[in-house]
Specification:
CATH superfamily of the largest domain: Adenylosuccinate Synthetase, subunit A, domain 1
Helix content: 25-40%
CATH class of the largest domain: Alpha Beta
Strand content: 15-25%
Largest sheet: 10 strands, mixed
Distance between the termini: 11 Å
Shape: globular
CATH architecture of the largest domain: 3-Layer(aba) Sandwich
Bound molecules: guanosine-5'-diphosphate, 6-O-phosphoryl inosine monophosphate, magnesium ion
Mean pLDDT: 97
């Protein structure tokens, strides 16, 4: 039985949370494999309206085990807050497992994120200020503190002492701010350890056993391919890899056990923070999409930048992820739009290109080449079958599918589980 990876195919916020919540019904394990609490996954289901940052979106099914994988950087304070919020809504989180290999976000990570952003001035990345970049930096620099370190308080104190010596030098001498206290941080994190201890485990065995029993395992992505540290719009990127390749590394599941890789695309494009968005609309149309779709960030509340569907970025994303299929979300946002545009290529001067440039300066010169398509003046939110969609909506989905170069499995016409249309069977 299958392992399905659910991957953000654009600049994040494509609707991964909704898709995971929908598919988790038939699964036994859901693993978050990348990012941290920079993610904001909105789930609207019969249990309520939720914004998840760290906890996998399978948590609403009592029989599903949810794993925060080794590829995640974990802020314990955020996690505990999220657990409490779910508990207040009678959602049981006792099946939550934290990989003992997951790295922790520490107070100096958040502080450094803020100081580094300030130092960048006008060139700021527009990070979520959650300490994500500095935490992944420390992981690679072998200066991280892992969830396992919370289980042994003596190790925790020693590790903190060593790491803070280095961090305090940077804080004081580079940024001129006050040093942080080992004792205070130890007390804070020892408190988190007492709360999270039962959840911290070696997740490799647990996930491997589920696979051996032939159960369905979902790998929940965070962020989107265009924010990838290698293939995104570097340096305007996040500090981990949202791609399918990392679904394997960030969960401890071998690549050859992943059966389906689903790319989640919005019917248009959005981006939060700085960096290129070739199809961005600065006009009334951009405003209309933002207001119609209420495109405001789940994590930071920032207005999301909006633009038409970008077929060049979409194909780049499908290629580097190896999508076996796609989900197109938010099709209903276009209900009542008389006509729509899709970007089919970029133009630089008098040259037309179909590849996604790796350099920011080249990307900034790219003008989208659009094809215009008729819209549909009908309400799609109550449609449940492909054959009942307006012909123009079906044409639009087929156009996106041909641009991405992969089939579409589902189209979503609203945030709720049932507002999903099967276009091609997943299996
Ligand atoms: P994620 O980070 O990829 O999980 O996406 P977010 O939750 O940040 O943003 C997606 C938003 O779109 C959420 O508010 C979802 O409830 C909403 N959503 C998902 N699918 C649909 C859809 O098909 N139609 C509409 N109108 N909203 C959707
Ligand atoms: P989900 O999982 C949209 C963006 C930030 C910023 C850049 C780097 O909800 O799709 P970081 O804090 O990661 O160092 O910020 O990445 N970003 C996201 N944008 N959705 C997300 O997650 C994002 N996570 C990070 O806005 O531009
Ligand atoms: Mg989001």
């Amino acid at each position: 039985m299958p392992v399905i990876a659910i991957i953000g195919a654009q600049w994040g916020d494509e609707g991964k949370g909704k898709v995971v919540d929908m598919l988790a019904e038939k699964s036994s394990v859901v693993v978050r494999f990348a990012g941290g609490d920079n993610a904001g996954h909105t789930v609207i289901n019969p249990r309520g309206h939720f914004k998840l940052h760290l906890i996998p979106s399978g948590i609403f099914y009592p029989e599903v085990t949810c794993v925060i994988g080794n590829g995640v950087v974990l802020n314990p304070a955020s996690l505990i807050k999220e657990i409490n919020q779910l508990a207040a809504n009678s959602i049981d989180t006792s099946r939550l497992v934290i990989s003992d290999r997951a790295h922790l976000i520490m107070p100096y990570h958040r502080l450094l994120d803020e100081l580094e952003e300030k130092a960048r001035g006008k060139k700021a990345i527009g990070t979520t200020l959650r300490g994500i970049g500095p935490a992944f930096t420390d992981k690679v620099a072998r200066m991280g503190i892992r969830a396992a370190d919370l289980l042994d308080k003596r190790t925790l104190r020693q590790r903190l002492k060593t790491v803070l010596e280095n961090k305090n030098m940077i804080l004081e001498r580079v940024y001129g701010v006050d040093p942080l206290s080992v004792d205070d941080m130890y007390r804070e994190y020892a408190g988190y350890a007492d709360i999270l201890r039962p959840n911290i485990k070696d997740s490799v065995e647990l996930i491997g056993a589920a696979l051996d029993r032939g159960e369905v395992v979902l790998l929940e992505g965070a962020q989107g391919a265009m924010l990838d540290i290698d293939f995104g719009t570097y340096p305007f990127a996040t500090s981990s890899s949202p791609l399918s390749g990392n679904a394997s590394l960030g969960s401890g599941i071998a690549p050859n056990r992943i059966d389906r890789i689903l790319g989640v695309y919005k019917a248009y494009c959005t981006r939060v923070g700085s960096g290129p968005l070739p199809t961005e609309l600065h006009d009334e149309m951009g405003h209309r999409i933002r207001e119609q779709a209420q495109e405001y960030g789940t994590t930071t509340g920032r207005a999301r930048r909006c633009g038409w569907f970008d077929g060049v970025a979409a194909r780049h994303s499908a290629r580097i992820n190896g999508f076996t299929g796609a989900v197109i979300t938010r099709l209903d946002v276009f209900d009542g739009f008389p006509s729509l545009k899709v970007c089919v290529a970029y133009r630089i001067g008098d040259r037309q290109i179909n590849r996604f440039p790796s350099s920011i300066s080249e990307l900034q010169k790219c003008e989208p080449v659009y094809e215009e398509m008729p819209g549909w003046l009908a309400d799609t939110t109550t449609v449940r079958r492909w054959q009942d969609l307006p012909a123009e909506a079906k044409n639009y989905i087929e156009k996106l599918s041909s641009l991405m170069g992969c089939c579409v499995n589902y189209a979503c016409i609203g945030p709720e589980r049932a507002q999903t249309i099967e276009v091609n069977p997943l299996f």
